[in-house]
Amino acid sequence: MICVVLPPHLRILARVDGDVELQVEGPVTQRTVLDALESRYPVLRGTIRDHVTQQRRAFLRFFACEQDLSHDPPDAPLPDAVARGEEPFYIIGAIAGG
Question: What is the pTM for the complete model shown?
Answer without folding.
Answer: 0.91
